[in-house]
Amino acid sequence: MNKVRTRFAPSPTGYMHIGNLRTALYAYLIAKKDDGDFILRIEDTDQGRLVEGAVDIIYETLKQCSLSHDEGPDVGGDYGPYVQSDRMRSGIYSEYAHKLIDLGKAHYCFCSEEEIEKQRQEQGDSFYFVDPCKLLSKEEIKEKLESGAPYTIRLNVDPEGTTSFDDEVYGRITVENKTLDEMVLLKSDGFPTYNFANVIDDHLMEISDVVRGNEYLSSAPKYNLIYEAFGWDIPRYIHCPPVMKDEHQKLSKRNGDASFQDLVAKGYLPEAILNYIALLGWAPSEDREIYSLQELTKAFDVKRIGTTGAIFDIDKLTWMNGVYLRNMDREKYYELVKPYIEDTVGTGFDHKLIADAIHDRVNILSEIHDMILFLNKEDKYENEVFFNKKAKTDPEIAKAILPEVYATLKDLDEWNNDTIFTALAAKAQDLSYKNITMMYPMQVALSGRSVAPGGATMIAAILGKQETLNRIQNAINRL
RNA sequence: GGUCUGUUGGUGAAACGGUUAACACAUCGCCCUCUCAAGGCGACACUCAUGGGUUCGAAUCCCAUACAGAUCACCA
To answer: How many CB atoms lie within 10 A of CB A240?
Structure first.
Protein backbone atom coordinates (compact mmCIF):
# COMPACT_ATOMS: atom_id res chain seq x y z
CA MET A 1 0.00 0.00 0.00
CA ASN A 2 1.26 3.46 -0.86
CA LYS A 3 2.18 5.91 1.79
CA VAL A 4 -0.60 8.14 3.04
CA ARG A 5 -0.02 11.71 2.02
CA THR A 6 -2.37 14.57 2.77
CA ARG A 7 -2.13 18.24 2.19
CA PHE A 8 -3.55 21.43 3.54
CA ALA A 9 -4.07 23.77 0.61
CA PRO A 10 -5.33 27.16 1.74
CA SER A 11 -5.43 30.26 -0.34
CA PRO A 12 -3.86 33.28 1.26
CA THR A 13 -6.90 35.50 1.24
CA GLY A 14 -7.03 36.58 4.85
CA TYR A 15 -6.99 35.20 8.32
CA MET A 16 -7.02 31.63 9.38
CA HIS A 17 -10.47 30.83 10.54
CA ILE A 18 -11.53 28.00 12.73
CA GLY A 19 -13.11 25.88 10.03
CA ASN A 20 -9.97 26.13 7.97
CA LEU A 21 -7.83 25.16 10.87
CA ARG A 22 -9.98 22.16 11.56
CA THR A 23 -9.59 20.98 7.98
CA ALA A 24 -5.83 21.31 8.42
CA LEU A 25 -6.05 19.36 11.66
CA TYR A 26 -7.99 16.52 10.10
CA ALA A 27 -5.60 16.35 7.16
CA TYR A 28 -2.71 16.23 9.58
CA LEU A 29 -4.31 13.56 11.73
CA ILE A 30 -5.18 11.36 8.79
CA ALA A 31 -1.60 11.46 7.58
CA LYS A 32 -0.01 10.98 10.96
CA LYS A 33 -2.25 8.18 12.04
CA ASP A 34 -0.66 6.04 9.36
CA ASP A 35 2.78 7.51 9.64
CA GLY A 36 2.24 9.44 6.46
CA ASP A 37 3.24 12.87 5.23
CA PHE A 38 1.47 16.13 5.71
CA ILE A 39 2.10 18.82 3.15
CA LEU A 40 1.37 22.53 3.09
CA ARG A 41 0.61 24.08 -0.24
CA ILE A 42 -0.36 27.70 -0.74
CA GLU A 43 -2.84 28.11 -3.56
CA ASP A 44 -2.40 31.62 -4.78
CA THR A 45 -3.33 31.41 -8.43
CA ASP A 46 -5.73 34.28 -8.11
CA GLN A 47 -3.64 37.38 -8.32
CA GLY A 48 -6.49 39.66 -7.49
CA ARG A 49 -7.17 38.21 -4.08
CA LEU A 50 -3.75 38.07 -2.58
CA VAL A 51 -3.65 39.49 0.90
CA GLU A 52 -0.43 40.78 2.32
CA GLY A 53 0.87 38.69 5.17
CA ALA A 54 -1.75 36.01 4.84
CA VAL A 55 0.80 33.32 4.15
CA ASP A 56 2.67 34.22 7.31
CA ILE A 57 -0.49 33.93 9.34
CA ILE A 58 -1.21 30.50 7.96
CA TYR A 59 2.34 29.48 8.59
CA GLU A 60 2.41 30.86 12.12
CA THR A 61 -0.92 29.33 13.04
CA LEU A 62 0.10 25.88 11.97
CA LYS A 63 3.33 26.28 13.86
CA GLN A 64 1.59 27.34 17.05
CA CYS A 65 -0.62 24.31 16.73
CA SER A 66 2.31 21.98 16.10
CA LEU A 67 0.80 20.99 12.80
CA SER A 68 4.15 20.81 11.07
CA HIS A 69 4.47 19.75 7.47
CA ASP A 70 6.95 17.18 6.28
CA GLU A 71 8.44 18.61 3.16
CA GLY A 72 8.70 21.65 0.99
CA PRO A 73 11.25 23.94 -0.59
CA ASP A 74 14.26 24.72 1.54
CA VAL A 75 13.87 27.93 3.50
CA GLY A 76 16.93 28.52 5.59
CA GLY A 77 17.24 24.92 6.65
CA ASP A 78 13.53 24.64 7.26
CA TYR A 79 10.73 23.35 5.08
CA GLY A 80 8.77 26.15 3.56
CA PRO A 81 5.34 25.64 2.07
CA TYR A 82 4.88 24.83 -1.58
CA VAL A 83 3.58 27.92 -3.33
CA GLN A 84 1.66 27.54 -6.54
CA SER A 85 2.67 30.88 -8.01
CA ASP A 86 6.30 29.78 -7.61
CA ARG A 87 5.61 26.42 -9.15
CA MET A 88 3.88 28.08 -12.03
CA ARG A 89 7.07 29.72 -13.20
CA SER A 90 8.31 26.38 -14.44
CA GLY A 91 5.27 26.29 -16.69
CA ILE A 92 3.95 22.98 -15.43
CA TYR A 93 0.30 23.92 -15.32
CA SER A 94 0.29 25.32 -18.81
CA GLU A 95 2.22 22.30 -20.00
CA TYR A 96 -0.35 19.91 -18.57
CA ALA A 97 -3.21 21.94 -19.95
CA HIS A 98 -1.75 21.75 -23.42
CA LYS A 99 -1.11 18.08 -22.96
CA LEU A 100 -4.82 17.65 -22.44
CA ILE A 101 -5.47 19.40 -25.73
CA ASP A 102 -3.11 17.00 -27.48
CA LEU A 103 -5.00 14.18 -25.83
CA GLY A 104 -8.22 15.59 -27.25
CA LYS A 105 -9.62 16.09 -23.76
CA ALA A 106 -9.57 19.86 -23.77
CA HIS A 107 -9.87 22.72 -26.24
CA TYR A 108 -8.90 26.33 -26.79
CA CYS A 109 -11.57 28.89 -26.12
CA PHE A 110 -11.38 32.38 -27.49
CA CYS A 111 -14.69 33.63 -26.15
CA SER A 112 -14.72 36.92 -24.34
CA GLU A 113 -16.50 37.33 -21.06
CA GLU A 114 -19.16 39.34 -22.84
CA GLU A 115 -19.97 36.45 -25.13
CA ILE A 116 -20.36 34.10 -22.22
CA GLU A 117 -22.46 36.65 -20.40
CA LYS A 118 -24.68 36.93 -23.44
CA GLN A 119 -25.38 33.21 -23.40
CA ARG A 120 -26.08 33.42 -19.71
CA GLN A 121 -28.67 36.14 -20.31
CA GLU A 122 -30.35 34.22 -23.07
CA GLN A 123 -30.57 30.96 -21.18
CA GLY A 124 -31.60 32.26 -17.79
CA ASP A 125 -31.71 29.88 -14.86
CA SER A 126 -30.83 26.75 -16.72
CA PHE A 127 -27.62 28.22 -18.02
CA TYR A 128 -25.23 25.79 -19.58
CA PHE A 129 -22.39 27.26 -21.53
CA VAL A 130 -22.05 25.85 -25.03
CA ASP A 131 -18.66 26.80 -26.32
CA PRO A 132 -18.70 27.78 -29.99
CA CYS A 133 -14.90 27.43 -30.04
CA LYS A 134 -15.26 23.66 -29.94
CA LEU A 135 -16.42 23.87 -33.52
CA LEU A 136 -13.38 25.76 -34.71
CA SER A 137 -11.26 24.02 -37.32
CA LYS A 138 -7.58 23.34 -36.78
CA GLU A 139 -6.71 26.11 -39.20
CA GLU A 140 -8.93 28.65 -37.51
CA ILE A 141 -7.41 27.82 -34.15
CA LYS A 142 -3.91 28.07 -35.51
CA GLU A 143 -4.71 31.40 -37.05
CA LYS A 144 -6.15 32.84 -33.87
CA LEU A 145 -3.25 31.55 -31.84
CA GLU A 146 -0.74 33.12 -34.18
CA SER A 147 -2.57 36.41 -34.16
CA GLY A 148 -2.01 36.47 -30.42
CA ALA A 149 -5.66 36.34 -29.48
CA PRO A 150 -6.14 35.72 -25.76
CA TYR A 151 -7.42 32.27 -24.99
CA THR A 152 -8.34 29.95 -22.21
CA ILE A 153 -8.20 26.20 -22.20
CA ARG A 154 -11.40 24.41 -21.28
CA LEU A 155 -12.05 20.82 -20.46
CA ASN A 156 -14.11 18.75 -22.88
CA VAL A 157 -17.12 17.19 -21.25
CA ASP A 158 -19.31 14.58 -22.84
CA PRO A 159 -22.79 15.54 -21.66
CA GLU A 160 -23.95 11.95 -21.87
CA GLY A 161 -23.76 9.67 -18.88
CA THR A 162 -22.90 10.20 -15.26
CA THR A 163 -19.83 10.60 -13.12
CA SER A 164 -19.62 9.26 -9.62
CA PHE A 165 -17.11 8.89 -6.86
CA ASP A 166 -16.91 7.58 -3.34
CA ASP A 167 -16.41 9.96 -0.49
CA GLU A 168 -15.20 8.53 2.79
CA VAL A 169 -17.71 10.48 4.80
CA TYR A 170 -20.60 11.17 2.45
CA GLY A 171 -20.58 7.91 0.58
CA ARG A 172 -21.17 7.53 -3.13
CA ILE A 173 -22.04 10.69 -5.01
CA THR A 174 -23.34 10.54 -8.55
CA VAL A 175 -24.09 13.43 -10.87
CA GLU A 176 -25.14 13.67 -14.44
CA ASN A 177 -22.49 14.93 -16.79
CA LYS A 178 -24.80 17.43 -18.34
CA THR A 179 -24.74 19.39 -15.09
CA LEU A 180 -20.96 19.64 -15.30
CA ASP A 181 -19.67 22.61 -17.24
CA GLU A 182 -16.65 22.65 -19.47
CA MET A 183 -14.53 24.39 -16.95
CA VAL A 184 -11.60 26.62 -17.61
CA LEU A 185 -8.30 24.96 -16.88
CA LEU A 186 -5.93 27.70 -17.92
CA LYS A 187 -6.94 31.32 -17.62
CA SER A 188 -6.15 33.91 -20.24
CA ASP A 189 -3.51 35.40 -17.98
CA GLY A 190 -1.68 32.11 -18.16
CA PHE A 191 -2.49 31.15 -14.61
CA PRO A 192 -4.21 27.85 -13.97
CA THR A 193 -7.59 27.92 -12.28
CA TYR A 194 -7.74 26.74 -8.72
CA ASN A 195 -9.48 23.56 -9.76
CA PHE A 196 -6.87 22.64 -12.30
CA ALA A 197 -3.78 23.53 -10.32
CA ASN A 198 -5.27 21.62 -7.45
CA VAL A 199 -5.60 18.42 -9.41
CA ILE A 200 -2.20 18.73 -11.06
CA ASP A 201 -0.44 19.37 -7.79
CA ASP A 202 -2.29 16.72 -5.89
CA HIS A 203 -1.23 14.23 -8.50
CA LEU A 204 2.35 15.45 -8.78
CA MET A 205 2.72 15.48 -5.01
CA GLU A 206 1.20 12.03 -4.81
CA ILE A 207 -1.54 13.07 -2.45
CA SER A 208 -3.38 9.91 -1.45
CA ASP A 209 -6.16 11.48 0.61
CA VAL A 210 -7.80 14.73 -0.38
CA VAL A 211 -9.19 16.37 2.73
CA ARG A 212 -11.28 19.51 2.27
CA GLY A 213 -14.51 21.23 3.16
CA ASN A 214 -17.77 19.85 1.87
CA GLU A 215 -18.35 22.91 -0.29
CA TYR A 216 -16.26 20.95 -2.80
CA LEU A 217 -18.53 17.97 -2.69
CA SER A 218 -20.52 19.03 -5.71
CA SER A 219 -17.48 19.98 -7.74
CA ALA A 220 -15.59 16.81 -6.97
CA PRO A 221 -16.96 15.04 -10.06
CA LYS A 222 -15.39 17.74 -12.19
CA TYR A 223 -12.04 16.96 -10.68
CA ASN A 224 -12.49 13.34 -11.52
CA LEU A 225 -13.02 14.23 -15.15
CA ILE A 226 -9.54 15.75 -15.16
CA TYR A 227 -8.01 12.76 -13.46
CA GLU A 228 -9.70 10.50 -15.95
CA ALA A 229 -8.61 12.60 -18.91
CA PHE A 230 -5.01 12.09 -17.86
CA GLY A 231 -5.60 8.50 -16.90
CA TRP A 232 -4.47 9.19 -13.34
CA ASP A 233 -5.52 7.42 -10.17
CA ILE A 234 -8.25 9.16 -8.27
CA PRO A 235 -7.37 9.91 -4.64
CA ARG A 236 -9.44 9.03 -1.63
CA TYR A 237 -11.82 11.88 -0.89
CA ILE A 238 -12.62 13.05 2.60
CA HIS A 239 -15.05 15.93 2.65
CA CYS A 240 -15.60 17.56 6.02
CA PRO A 241 -18.84 19.11 7.24
CA PRO A 242 -18.78 22.86 7.85
CA VAL A 243 -18.16 24.63 11.13
CA MET A 244 -21.06 26.97 11.70
CA LYS A 245 -21.50 30.22 13.51
CA ASP A 246 -25.17 29.51 13.97
CA GLU A 247 -27.86 27.44 12.37
CA HIS A 248 -27.61 29.28 9.09
CA GLN A 249 -24.16 30.72 8.68
CA LYS A 250 -20.77 29.23 8.42
CA LEU A 251 -18.06 30.61 10.62
CA SER A 252 -16.07 33.11 8.65
CA LYS A 253 -13.64 35.88 9.15
CA ARG A 254 -15.67 38.04 6.88
CA ASN A 255 -18.49 38.19 9.39
CA GLY A 256 -16.07 39.22 12.07
CA ASP A 257 -16.20 35.82 13.70
CA ALA A 258 -13.38 34.81 15.94
CA SER A 259 -10.30 33.60 14.16
CA PHE A 260 -7.65 31.43 15.70
CA GLN A 261 -5.50 34.44 16.47
CA ASP A 262 -8.40 36.27 18.07
CA LEU A 263 -8.96 33.35 20.37
CA VAL A 264 -5.31 33.10 21.29
CA ALA A 265 -5.27 36.83 21.96
CA LYS A 266 -8.17 36.36 24.35
CA GLY A 267 -6.22 33.82 26.27
CA TYR A 268 -7.26 30.51 24.79
CA LEU A 269 -4.52 27.92 24.48
CA PRO A 270 -3.71 26.52 21.05
CA GLU A 271 -3.83 22.98 22.45
CA ALA A 272 -7.30 23.55 23.85
CA ILE A 273 -8.55 25.13 20.64
CA LEU A 274 -7.23 22.24 18.62
CA ASN A 275 -8.75 19.72 20.99
CA TYR A 276 -12.08 21.45 20.87
CA ILE A 277 -12.33 21.81 17.12
CA ALA A 278 -11.31 18.20 16.64
CA LEU A 279 -14.63 17.39 18.28
CA LEU A 280 -16.64 19.59 15.91
CA GLY A 281 -17.66 17.10 13.29
CA TRP A 282 -15.81 14.13 14.67
CA ALA A 283 -16.56 11.92 17.65
CA PRO A 284 -14.15 9.54 19.34
CA SER A 285 -15.21 5.95 19.85
CA GLU A 286 -14.50 6.07 23.56
CA ASP A 287 -16.25 8.24 26.11
CA ARG A 288 -13.66 10.94 26.43
CA GLU A 289 -13.10 14.48 25.24
CA ILE A 290 -9.70 15.66 26.36
CA TYR A 291 -7.06 14.68 23.83
CA SER A 292 -3.58 15.94 23.19
CA LEU A 293 -2.55 16.22 19.56
CA GLN A 294 -0.59 13.04 19.89
CA GLU A 295 -3.54 11.21 21.41
CA LEU A 296 -5.74 12.53 18.65
CA THR A 297 -3.55 11.06 15.96
CA LYS A 298 -4.01 7.68 17.58
CA ALA A 299 -7.72 7.99 18.19
CA PHE A 300 -8.72 9.68 14.97
CA ASP A 301 -10.82 7.71 12.55
CA VAL A 302 -12.16 9.02 9.27
CA LYS A 303 -15.18 6.78 9.62
CA ARG A 304 -16.32 8.79 12.61
CA ILE A 305 -16.40 12.15 10.88
CA GLY A 306 -19.97 13.40 10.80
CA THR A 307 -21.96 14.79 7.93
CA THR A 308 -23.77 17.71 9.51
CA GLY A 309 -22.53 21.20 10.20
CA ALA A 310 -21.47 21.80 13.78
CA ILE A 311 -22.07 25.07 15.56
CA PHE A 312 -19.01 26.52 17.24
CA ASP A 313 -19.78 26.84 20.94
CA ILE A 314 -17.49 29.27 22.70
CA ASP A 315 -18.82 28.19 26.11
CA LYS A 316 -17.59 24.68 25.65
CA LEU A 317 -14.23 25.87 24.40
CA THR A 318 -14.01 28.09 27.45
CA TRP A 319 -14.69 25.14 29.71
CA MET A 320 -12.15 23.02 27.92
CA ASN A 321 -9.56 25.75 28.10
CA GLY A 322 -10.10 25.82 31.85
CA VAL A 323 -9.56 22.09 32.00
CA TYR A 324 -6.25 22.50 30.22
CA LEU A 325 -5.21 25.27 32.59
CA ARG A 326 -6.13 23.25 35.66
CA ASN A 327 -4.49 20.06 34.50
CA MET A 328 -1.34 21.83 33.52
CA ASP A 329 1.97 21.28 35.16
CA ARG A 330 2.30 23.83 37.97
CA GLU A 331 5.41 25.46 36.59
CA LYS A 332 4.03 25.76 33.10
CA TYR A 333 0.80 27.20 34.43
CA TYR A 334 2.72 29.76 36.41
CA GLU A 335 4.79 30.83 33.43
CA LEU A 336 1.65 31.26 31.38
CA VAL A 337 -0.20 33.25 33.97
CA LYS A 338 2.67 35.36 35.22
CA PRO A 339 2.66 38.04 32.53
CA TYR A 340 -1.06 38.60 33.00
CA ILE A 341 -0.63 39.00 36.74
CA GLU A 342 2.33 41.30 36.36
CA ASP A 343 0.45 43.41 33.85
CA THR A 344 -2.35 44.26 36.20
CA VAL A 345 -0.66 44.18 39.55
CA GLY A 346 2.95 45.13 38.92
CA THR A 347 5.81 43.62 40.84
CA GLY A 348 4.77 44.46 44.36
CA PHE A 349 3.09 41.16 45.13
CA ASP A 350 3.94 37.53 45.44
CA HIS A 351 2.93 36.34 41.99
CA LYS A 352 3.02 32.68 42.86
CA LEU A 353 0.57 33.24 45.67
CA ILE A 354 -1.77 35.06 43.32
CA ALA A 355 -1.42 32.32 40.74
CA ASP A 356 -2.44 29.80 43.37
CA ALA A 357 -5.40 31.87 44.46
CA ILE A 358 -6.84 32.05 40.96
CA HIS A 359 -5.79 28.60 39.82
CA ASP A 360 -9.18 26.94 39.90
CA ARG A 361 -11.17 29.85 38.57
CA VAL A 362 -9.38 30.93 35.42
CA ASN A 363 -10.84 29.60 32.21
CA ILE A 364 -9.38 32.18 29.88
CA LEU A 365 -6.17 34.02 30.55
CA SER A 366 -7.74 37.37 29.78
CA GLU A 367 -10.09 36.95 32.74
CA ILE A 368 -7.21 37.33 35.13
CA HIS A 369 -7.03 41.08 34.89
CA ASP A 370 -10.49 41.78 36.29
CA MET A 371 -10.15 38.99 38.76
CA ILE A 372 -7.24 40.53 40.62
CA LEU A 373 -7.53 44.20 39.83
CA PHE A 374 -8.65 44.94 43.39
CA LEU A 375 -5.24 44.01 44.73
CA ASN A 376 -3.79 47.22 43.41
CA LYS A 377 -6.54 49.35 44.71
CA GLU A 378 -9.74 48.40 46.44
CA ASP A 379 -12.80 48.48 44.27
CA LYS A 380 -15.14 51.34 44.92
CA TYR A 381 -18.09 49.78 46.67
CA GLU A 382 -21.29 50.51 48.54
CA ASN A 383 -21.88 49.31 52.06
CA GLU A 384 -24.68 47.17 50.67
CA VAL A 385 -22.04 44.66 49.67
CA PHE A 386 -21.80 43.65 53.31
CA PHE A 387 -25.24 42.10 53.05
CA ASN A 388 -24.90 38.38 52.55
CA LYS A 389 -27.63 35.87 53.13
CA LYS A 390 -25.45 32.84 53.55
CA ALA A 391 -23.07 34.56 55.96
CA LYS A 392 -25.97 36.26 57.69
CA THR A 393 -24.15 39.57 57.58
CA ASP A 394 -25.10 43.15 56.94
CA PRO A 395 -23.33 46.49 57.44
CA GLU A 396 -24.25 46.56 61.12
CA ILE A 397 -22.86 43.15 61.83
CA ALA A 398 -19.78 43.93 59.78
CA LYS A 399 -19.26 46.98 61.89
CA ALA A 400 -19.19 44.77 64.97
CA ILE A 401 -17.03 42.06 63.49
CA LEU A 402 -14.36 43.95 61.63
CA PRO A 403 -12.75 45.38 64.79
CA GLU A 404 -12.45 41.85 66.11
CA VAL A 405 -10.78 40.79 62.89
CA TYR A 406 -8.49 43.75 63.10
CA ALA A 407 -7.52 42.96 66.68
CA THR A 408 -6.65 39.34 66.07
CA LEU A 409 -4.72 40.10 62.92
CA LYS A 410 -2.83 42.92 64.50
CA ASP A 411 -1.15 40.58 66.95
CA LEU A 412 -0.36 37.95 64.36
CA ASP A 413 3.35 37.58 63.69
CA GLU A 414 3.60 34.84 61.13
CA TRP A 415 1.70 36.01 58.09
CA ASN A 416 0.39 33.42 55.70
CA ASN A 417 -2.88 31.88 54.67
CA ASP A 418 -2.74 29.12 57.27
CA THR A 419 -1.82 31.24 60.24
CA ILE A 420 -4.37 33.88 59.35
CA PHE A 421 -7.09 31.32 58.94
CA THR A 422 -6.25 29.50 62.14
CA ALA A 423 -6.25 32.68 64.16
CA LEU A 424 -9.52 33.91 62.71
CA ALA A 425 -11.24 30.56 63.02
CA ALA A 426 -10.27 30.39 66.68
CA LYS A 427 -11.61 33.87 67.21
CA ALA A 428 -14.82 33.01 65.47
CA GLN A 429 -15.31 30.06 67.76
CA ASP A 430 -14.71 32.27 70.82
CA LEU A 431 -17.39 34.61 69.62
CA SER A 432 -19.72 31.77 68.58
CA TYR A 433 -19.74 32.86 64.97
CA LYS A 434 -19.58 30.65 61.98
CA ASN A 435 -16.36 31.09 60.06
CA ILE A 436 -18.16 32.64 57.18
CA THR A 437 -19.71 35.30 59.33
CA MET A 438 -16.27 36.50 60.16
CA MET A 439 -14.65 35.93 56.81
CA TYR A 440 -17.21 37.53 54.57
CA PRO A 441 -17.02 41.06 55.96
CA MET A 442 -13.27 40.74 55.88
CA GLN A 443 -13.36 39.72 52.24
CA VAL A 444 -15.46 42.75 51.41
CA ALA A 445 -13.18 45.02 53.40
CA LEU A 446 -10.16 43.71 51.54
CA SER A 447 -11.57 43.52 48.06
CA GLY A 448 -14.72 45.58 47.96
CA ARG A 449 -16.35 42.62 46.28
CA SER A 450 -18.93 40.04 47.09
CA VAL A 451 -17.02 37.62 44.94
CA ALA A 452 -13.25 37.44 45.12
CA PRO A 453 -10.66 34.80 44.37
CA GLY A 454 -9.00 32.70 47.04
CA GLY A 455 -11.01 33.54 50.12
CA ALA A 456 -10.54 36.35 52.60
CA THR A 457 -7.50 34.86 54.30
CA MET A 458 -5.75 34.21 51.04
CA ILE A 459 -6.33 37.78 49.96
CA ALA A 460 -4.92 38.96 53.27
CA ALA A 461 -1.87 36.80 52.74
CA ILE A 462 -1.33 38.32 49.33
CA LEU A 463 -1.91 41.90 50.45
CA GLY A 464 0.45 41.64 53.39
CA LYS A 465 -0.19 42.58 56.97
CA GLN A 466 0.06 46.34 56.70
CA GLU A 467 -2.23 46.72 53.70
CA THR A 468 -4.68 44.24 55.18
CA LEU A 469 -4.91 46.20 58.39
CA ASN A 470 -5.26 49.45 56.48
CA ARG A 471 -8.13 48.21 54.40
CA ILE A 472 -9.96 46.79 57.38
CA GLN A 473 -9.55 50.06 59.20
CA ASN A 474 -10.89 51.92 56.18
CA ALA A 475 -13.91 49.69 56.14
CA ILE A 476 -14.57 50.23 59.82
CA ASN A 477 -14.35 53.96 59.31
CA ARG A 478 -16.88 54.00 56.54
CA LEU A 479 -19.45 51.84 58.27
C1' G B 1 -34.48 27.43 -10.52
C1' G B 2 -31.15 22.73 -11.64
C1' U B 3 -27.83 19.51 -9.06
C1' C B 4 -25.61 17.59 -4.58
C1' U B 5 -25.84 16.98 0.72
C1' G B 6 -27.93 17.05 5.38
C1' U B 7 -32.02 17.00 9.63
C1' U B 8 -31.16 13.07 17.40
C1' G B 9 -32.20 18.25 23.51
C1' G B 10 -30.11 25.37 23.84
C1' U B 11 -24.86 23.26 21.90
C1' G B 12 -21.25 19.18 20.56
C1' A B 13 -22.83 14.27 20.07
C1' A B 14 -23.38 8.32 20.84
C1' A B 15 -26.45 4.66 18.96
C1' C B 16 -24.53 0.85 13.38
C1' G B 17 -33.26 -3.23 13.77
C1' G B 18 -34.55 -4.88 20.03
C1' U B 19 -31.02 0.07 25.78
C1' U B 20 -34.81 3.56 30.81
C1' A B 21 -32.05 7.40 23.56
C1' A B 22 -24.78 7.20 26.26
C1' C B 23 -21.49 11.06 27.35
C1' A B 24 -19.84 16.31 27.49
C1' C B 25 -20.93 21.86 27.51
C1' A B 26 -24.69 25.22 29.05
C1' U B 27 -28.87 25.74 32.45
C1' C B 28 -31.27 24.61 37.24
C1' G B 29 -31.12 22.24 42.10
C1' C B 30 -28.45 19.97 46.30
C1' C B 31 -23.68 18.75 48.91
C1' C B 32 -18.81 20.54 50.20
C1' U B 33 -17.00 25.31 51.60
C1' C B 34 -13.97 31.63 54.44
C1' U B 35 -17.20 34.35 48.99
C1' C B 36 -16.76 32.67 43.92
C1' A B 37 -14.81 28.77 41.62
C1' A B 38 -13.08 23.80 41.41
C1' G B 39 -14.99 19.00 42.95
C1' G B 40 -19.23 15.53 44.14
C1' C B 41 -24.42 14.28 43.38
C1' G B 42 -28.99 15.01 40.80
C1' A B 43 -32.70 17.23 37.22
C1' C B 44 -33.23 18.34 32.10
C1' A B 45 -35.31 14.68 24.61
C1' C B 46 -43.78 12.11 27.16
C1' U B 47 -38.69 11.23 22.00
C1' C B 48 -34.92 11.12 17.45
C1' A B 49 -37.93 17.39 11.30
C1' U B 50 -43.10 15.66 9.54
C1' G B 51 -46.21 11.97 7.08
C1' G B 52 -46.48 7.30 5.12
C1' G B 53 -44.58 2.39 4.48
C1' U B 54 -41.18 -2.42 5.41
C1' U B 55 -40.72 -5.41 10.04
C1' C B 56 -42.79 -9.39 15.55
C1' G B 57 -39.94 -4.87 16.51
C1' A B 58 -37.32 1.45 13.53
C1' A B 59 -33.84 7.23 15.77
C1' U B 60 -31.71 3.30 12.88
C1' C B 61 -34.20 0.43 6.23
C1' C B 62 -37.56 2.58 1.99
C1' C B 63 -40.64 6.61 -0.12
C1' A B 64 -42.75 11.43 -0.02
C1' U B 65 -43.07 16.37 2.21
C1' A B 66 -40.89 20.34 4.93
C1' C B 67 -36.74 22.90 6.33
C1' A B 68 -31.46 23.92 6.08
C1' G B 69 -26.66 24.12 3.71
C1' A B 70 -23.45 23.69 -0.58
C1' U B 71 -22.72 24.34 -5.73
C1' C B 72 -23.90 26.09 -10.64
C1' A B 73 -17.13 32.00 -12.44
C1' C B 74 -11.18 33.17 -16.70
C1' C B 75 -12.82 32.88 -7.13
C1' A B 76 -10.34 29.85 -4.25
So the answer is: 27
pLDDT in tens, A294-344: 999 999 999 999 999 999 999 999 999 999 999 999 999 999 999 999 999
Residue A109 in contact with residue A131, Cβ under 8 Å? yes
What is each CA distance from A125 to A105, A122, A140, A395, in whole angstroms? 28, 9, 32, 75
Catalytic residue among A253, A298, A332, A399: A253
| Cα distances (Å, whole numbers) of residue A105 to A128, A234, A339, A446 | 19, 17, 62, 80
Q: What is the DSSP letter of A375?
A: G
> Å from A312 (CA) to B14 (C1')?
19
Q: Report chain B positions within 7 A of protein CB atoms.
A: 1-8, 10-15, 22-26, 33-39, 68-76
Concerning whether A303 is annotated as a catalytic residue, the answer is: no
pLDDT tens track for A466-476: 999 999 999 99
C-alpha distances in Å from residue A253, one per residue of A242, A248, A262, A374 = 14, 15, 10, 36
For range A394-412, the mean pLDDT = 95
Structure confidence at residue A112 (pLDDT): 85
Top pLDDT among A265 and A125 is at A265
A237: left (phi over 0), alpha (psi -120 to 50) or beta: beta
Count how many Cα atoms sit within 13 Å of the Cα of residue A120 in the half-sphere of its side chain: 7
